[in-house]
Amino acid sequence: MPTETKDESAEPASKVELPDSVAGSGEIPSFDITLRVRRYLPEFYDEAYWDDFQVTMYGTDRVLDALHKVKWEMDGSVSFRRSCAHGVCGSDAMRINGHNRLACKVLLKDLNTSKPITVEPIKGLPVEKDLIVDMEPFFQSYREIMPFLMNESAPPSKERLQSAEERERFDDTTKCILCAACTSSCPVFWTDGQYFGPAAIVNAHRFIFDSRDDAGDMRLEVLNDKEGVWRCRTTFNCTDACPRGIQVTKAISEVKQAILSRKV
Amino acid sequence: MAQTIQPPRSSDNIKDGVKYNRNSGSNSNFEMFGWLFMRMSGIVLVVLIFVHLYVNLMVGNGIQAVDFGFVAGKWADPFWQVWDLAMLWLAMLHGSNGVRTIINDYAEKDSTRFWLKVILFAASAVIIVLGTLVIFTFNPCPPNATADLLPSFCSA
Ligand code: HEM
Ligand code: SF4
Ligand code: FES
Fold first, then answer.
1. CATH number where A215 lies
2. What is the pLDDT of residues B35-67, one digit of tens each?
3. Which of A154, B50, B99, B138 has the fewest CB atoms in 10 Å of its CB?
């Protein structure tokens, strides 16, 4: 059997034919921006402060690329979390121009580049350094809603079947990547950090409405707590913040309805 | 750490090195009923408040007609006594529960939170009791009062 050999003359997949009349249009536009980063260096200063960086960036660049440029070429001490750089791992949620976003998903060209672009750590969690916060309080409330399948019945020989409709019931909340953008955008969470927060409720929703799971009542009991769903004031900040487009506020209200329908 | 907040649900219940607090909470439904009450009373208040405003400010001579005699007349009618009583109680309980929520949010120390709530509950109780008393014991023509201080219908 003949194996396919690499054809040296093959065009790269991304090659675009441009007429000569639009000379230079293949170039990516570049622009200068000011990146205003909220710095916190507890070894040196007690107070947080703003640090401005002037960088030349391109139309295809994201806020994360600007942070990389600053860290790699200007000031290596600037600290932030990132891993996948493609909106999958959820490690680079931050407050960009006052909105919780993933730095790897916000294109610079979509922001107002004539003004400084502010980048701050997400609010409501203790800041450890620059843009890095202590995520432990966030994960603690996530653990409390028992984010794993619980089913006491004997496992079937093949699989636990579920209809497409049953799967659809919780499809939206399966998309969470635990970035904490929602919880740290919630003014109720900012006040004292005791509220379970949207992310924990989203992940409880994912199992409460899963037909294969048997522990929905236990999770509803957990979220009926005084720090649970009833602290939600329907401000929709969480829905606006979610980089996965999850209808977070809707999921919270569905959990409220589920508690009410069982208790009243 | 820059801003230090208590970790959520700080009474940790550690089992096998994993923090689970699910059994430490009380099984009270208080917050659930509070949430329900805000919505139920809100719906009823819309009707109570807008009919109240319409009857007092729009019907007949409108706002010009509101005086001591107008109020006295309304409170002589059991229908408006019950109406105003419902409005008083629902608005006070709804408003107080709303402010309780706000205190829970913004008080930073437990002692501040406690005292703000004591003041709130005391104030609400005084207003509810006084208001109820006024609606039912209101007498537009108290005996032994100077005649020119009283509305004209008293002498009739
Ligand atoms: C006109 C009819 C009214 C409706 C439909 C209504 C509805 C509501 C609802 C649904 C909430 C809960 C909001 C939430 O938890 O997210 C609320 C909160 C509140 N209401 Fe009312 N309400 C009405 C009248 C009043 C009146 C007359 C007062 C004052 C006596 C009042 C004071 C408050 C306060 C202080 C809160 C708490 C605000 C907060 O949670 O941030 N409301 N209202
Ligand atoms: S619900 Fe959305 S915003 Fe919240 S943690 Fe999950 S992915 Fe992030
Ligand atoms: S770096 Fe992974 S989501 Fe942005």
1. 1.10.1060.10
2. 999 999 999 999 999 999 999 888 878 888 888
3. A154
